Amino acid sequence: FFKEIILFLYNQTGQNLGISVLIISFFLKILLLPFDLSNFVFQQKIEKINPEIKKIQEKYKNDYKKISDELMALYRREKINPFINFLNIFVQFFILVSLYSVLKVILSDNQFNFLFFGIDLRKPSFILALIALAFQLLQLKNFKVKSKIIYLFFGLMFVILFTLPSIILVYWIVNLVLTLIENFIFKKFFQARIDIKTNQSGQ
Fold first, then answer.
1. Which pTM was predicted?
2. Could you report the per-residue pLDDT of 155-180, keeping only the tens digit for each?
3. From CA 192, how far away is CA 189, in angstroms rounded?
4. Burial 151-173 (b: 16+ CB within 10 A, else e)
5. How confident is the model over 176-191, as pLDDT tens digits?
6. How far apart, in whole angstroms, are the C-alpha atoms of residue 122 and residue 157?
7. Helices within 78-190 (DSSP H only)
8. Cβ contact 194:41 at 8 Å
9. Distance (Å, whole) CA 131 – CA 189
């Protein structure tokens, strides 16, 4: 399915595989928008009830059944369905793995023009790996992680990114940029509404 779409876009863009990947990345982000918004709402609500979660864990400590029962009661009270979040993650993971598999197949097909702004999309690219790493850093800048762990994480990530074909990096970079824009929009237009609902439900 993804290969047919990429083939169609490839022919419509003057046989430009890079532009085809950009377009399909954009439309995939739109397709996954409801799932991303659902995950955002879930994470925001979990963050707001996190103090209550910690109180429950400290109060019952090693009584795991009681902790589980109390957490489920808390989720019901706050209208949080953790299983929906798992479903959202599974759907997104399935789509991304499918696309990744198709892109790997395309790399072995010599009918495509693999040049994109002078970059061979079949080969790793130091520049694209750096760009992807920079946008990944922007996405994770709000995470409170010890500096040594951050350096280790990004060091390992750069090694992985530098071994990937450039066509994968193009998709990764576009997805990261769109995710940053998406998060900005979610926080600007949806976070306040989540605040109101959560506060009201806790009263």
1. 0.74
2. 777 788 888 889 889 988 998 899 88
3. 7
4. eeebeeebeebbebbbbbbbbbb
5. 899 888 888 888 877 6
6. 19
7. 82-107, 126-139, 147-163, 166-189
8. yes
9. 28
